TrEMBL record, chain A:
Coiled coil: none annotated. GO terms for molecular function: oxidoreductase activity. This is L-lactate dehydrogenase complex protein LldE. Residues 4-83, 130-224 form the Cysteine-rich domain. One of its GO terms (cellular component) is cytosol. InterPro entries: Cys_rich_dom.
TrEMBL record, chain B:
Residues 456-466 have a biased composition (Basic and acidic residues). This is L-lactate dehydrogenase complex protein LldF. The keyword Chaperone does not apply. PANTHER family: LACTATE UTILIZATION PROTEIN B. One of its GO terms (molecular function) is metal ion binding. Transmembrane segments: none annotated. Residues 433-466 are annotated as: Disordered. InterPro entries: 4Fe4S_Fe-S-bd, 4Fe4S_Fe_S_CS, FTHF_cligase-like_sf, Helical_ferredxn, LUD_dom, LutB/LldF, NagB/RpiA_transferase-like. It comes from the Bacteria. One of its GO terms (biological process) is lactate metabolic process. Keywords: 4Fe-4S, Electron transport, Iron, Iron-sulfur, Metal-binding, Repeat, Transport. Residues 296-318, 345-374 form the 4Fe-4S ferredoxin-type domain.
């Protein structure tokens, strides 16, 4: 089983430690992981701003780079969701993409659905309170958890996987899955509104008494992190793979 | 009437200047979302109802011409006069024609977003007919000479103190008496006078049933019933998408509508109108006004399933923090942000970008419209029509180029990581990222690609040594 590691462009530049944690976690679970250097952006910012031509070219490029792998895994729900849920708007007719699509996984999905992970490669003790941040695309497109709007039985991938971690106390904020306001270029198209959403979200996470906001999407964590630093708050954003590797807050 | 030159980002920033008012607005509307959740949860078949509602509407839209003809024939058989209006102007002319021919001086109107869309009130007022909105929220915004800020709760942007002040000025209530019951009674007494002296009543239509030729109006105040029972003339204005095939389908929608809209199991009144009262007249005006164009559009026809419950507004984190007046189109929030750009991309294009694509709207929608996706599809049109700000478009074209040239992309990233830490904070403070209260992320010394290459090199060296 050969895995192509998909590291979204902004993670590559701004959150290399999240990418490294993902790589190490997969390797320590015995996976053979390759990281194709010629990868770039999946095209979501282009698509979300209506640039169909650019989005289409990006989708073709992504397909070309990753089609040789048995699985493609990334530590970002939003970018994976763009590939698996929205490339059809641009390259539905491409048979290589249709073959690739079911092989693209967000890291937590991959651990749970493909590797059927029942215990972590090494025991992790993380004696901290964490507030779960459900990122919108992971939640509502990848079904990481039951969205609060739908009247369906409750499940949550992040909560489930954190059961493998010793000592951690999992909390949910008020309005358990409201958007943090990042929204890609929305955050600079509407800075005041986006920031207001983020401020509310950070305050709700902090009100749980948690020390960390834990999520599976670095973009939301980056957004809330910017607000936390600006306001000098104590709570810290943390990607879930950093807990699962045992790096925890040290990274 | 609404100011359609409003651009969402600026209007939202203005609204957020009063953070306390904005927080109150957000909480007041979130409370309605929570009531909706509590009601929906009580029905084990909730998701099944949504699926059914979606399918009934989808089926109806696929044969809308047949169902409209059937509806017209059955309504005519009941003695109702049916009119067809291609656009807003024709709708207004038809309504005015009916009223003018019967020397109507005063029209009482129950809630109708369609007449807002058509600008009926000013049209009639300019021609000497007094129009009195009789839904309490609509009456409040009418007295303030404002448009509704929400399609179900038109005055949700106002606090009781503001309403007390307005009623003191307009209806002569005691100054400073903010008691909602007192204020409601005052409005009721005032409206009663208008009901008794009106010459005609106009209602909107929630559902029009092809099989019976009847229309259904859902209200909580009974104002539609008074407005159609007291005056001899009843005009019902409806968009052509309001059709459902059979009476037996109605229950699916009435079960969803009030729960989705305001978190009530049912509206207080669900009134069925089939014919005029004895000695009276009933008219139905069926309005297109751009709906056929939407129906013919593969990307957006689904928006015609909308039953105007407003649940998408109540759940929308952007709407709750910017209010209905930040949207240029008469219908705000997610559904307005697809209907507005469908009508006029140049005027309402900014609405398609007033969205973080969180997708909560699509999940609450009782007829399962893919709202957040429709907004992104509208952005395609905005891009193609060259309506993006020049700077943004240049940025996207640069991004498009770099995406195809990873080495340059990586170089750009490296430059960013090296330069950002050394530029003075005074230069970044006013950037779109920072200006409202966000710091830039720390810039790592190395990208993952660099770390990975180094790691591979180290591994090779190690293997070489062995």
């Amino acid at each position: 089983m050969k895995i192509g590691l998909f590291i979204p462009c902004f993670i590559n530049e701004l959150f290399p430690h999240v990418a490294m944690a993902t790589l190490e976690l997969l390797e320590s679970l015995g996976c053979e992981v390759a990281f194709p250097m010629e990868q770039s952006c999946c095209g979501q910012p282009l698509a979300n701003n209506g640039d169909s031509k650019g989005a289409c070219e990006a989708a073709r490029r992504f397909t070309g780079v990753f089609q040789q792998y048995d699985y493609v895994v990334a530590p970002s729900g939003s970018c994976v969701s763009h590939v698996t849920h929205h490339y059809d708007w641009y390259i539905a007719e491409d048979p290589a993409y249709q073959q690739l699509k079911p092989k693209v996984y967000e890291i937590i999905e991959f651990l749970q659905d493909v590797l059927k992970l029942e215990k972590l490669p090494k025991p992790v003790y993380f004696p901290h309170k964490v507030s779960i941040h459900q990122s919108c695309h992971g939640l509502r497109e990848l079904h990481h958890a039951s969205p609060s709007e739908l009247m369906i039985p409750y499940q949550s991938r992040l909560e489930n996987i954190l059961k493998l971690v010793d000592g951690v106390e999992v909390l949910l904020p008020e309005r358990r899955d409201e958007c943090c306001g990042f929204g890609g270029t929305f955050c600079v198209d509407e800075p005041e509104l986006s920031t207001a959403m983020g401020e509310d979200r950070v305050a709700q996470h902090e009100a749980t008494g948690a020390e960390y906001i834990v999520g599976a999407d670095p973009s939301c964590l980056m957004h809330m992190g910017g607000i936390i630093r600006h306001q000098g708050r104590r709570i810290r954003p943390l990607h879930i793979v950093e807990i699962l590797t045992g790096r925890g807050a040290g990274a | 009437m609404k100011d359609d030159s409003v651009k969402h980002p600026q209007a939202a920033a203005e609204f957020l200047k009063d953070r306390a008012q904005a927080k109150w607005h957000d909480s007041a509307i979130w409370w309605v979302r929570q009531k909706r959740d509590a009601q929906a949860k009580q029905l084990p078949e909730w998701e099944e109802l949504r699926r059914l509602a979606r399918e009934i509407k989808a089926h109806t839209l696929s044969q809308l011409d047949d169902y409209l003809a059937q509806f017209e024939a059955n309504a005519q058989n009941n003695g109702v006069t049916v009119h067809w209006a291609a656009d807003a102007d024709e709708h207004n002319r038809i309504v005015h024609g009916i009223l003018a021919a019967r020397q109507v001086k005063k029209l009482v109107k129950s809630k109708s977003m369609l007449t807002e869309e058509c600008g009926l009130n000013p049209y009639l007022e300019q021609r000497g007919i007094e129009v009195v909105d009789t839904d309490l929220g609509e009456r409040i915004v009418q007295l303030r000479h404002e448009a509704p800020s929400h399609i179900v709760m038109p005055a949700i942007h106002l606090k009781k103190e503001q309403i007390s002040e307005l009623f003191h000025k307009e209806l002569g209530t005691e100054a400073g008496n903010n008691d909602p019951t007192y204020l409601t009674h005052a409005a009721r007494a005032n409206l009663r006078e208008h009901f008794l002296t009106a010459d005609a009543g106009l209602t909107g239509v929630n559902f029009a049933i092809a099989e019976t030729g009847g229309v259904v109006v859902c209200t909580n105040e009974g104002n539609a019933d008074l407005g159609t029972s007291l005056p001899p003339i009843h005009i019902a204005s409806m968009g052509l998408e309001k059709i459902i095939p059979r009476l037996e389908h109605l229950g699916v929608f009435t079960r969803l509508l009030a729960r989705s809209a305001i978190g009530s199991p049912v509206t207080t009144y669900t009134s069925h109108f089939h014919q005029a009262r004895p000695g009276g007249e009933m008219h139905i005006v069926i309005v297109d006004n751009g709906r056929s164009d939407i129906l013919g559009n593969e990307d957006f026809y689904q928006s015609l399933r909308c039953i105007r419950c407003g649940a998408c507004m109540n759940t929308c984190p952007v709407y709750r923090r910017s209010s209905g007046f930040s949207y240029s189109y008469i219908i705000p929030g997610p559904i307005g942000s697809t209907l507005g750009p469908s009508r006029d991309m140049k005027k309402h294009g900014s609405m398609a970008f007033a969205c973080s694509t969180c997708g909560s709207c699509s999940n609450v929608c009782p007829v399962k419209i893919n709202l957040h996706e429709q907004l992104v599809l509208h952005r395609k049109k905005a891009f193609e029509q060259n309506l993006l700000p020049a700077g943004k478009k240049m940025g996207l074209l640069a991004m498009r180029f770099l995406t195809q040239h990873p080495a340059l992309f990586d170089l750009g990233g490296k430059v960013m990581r090296k330069v950002v830490p050394i530029i003075p904070e005074s230069l970044t403070r006013h950037s779109a990222w920072s200006r409202a209260g966000r710091d830039l992320p720390p810039m790592p010394a190395q990208s993952f690609k660099e770390l990975y290459q180094q790691r591979s090199q180290d591994k090779q060296d190690k293997e070489g040594q062995q």
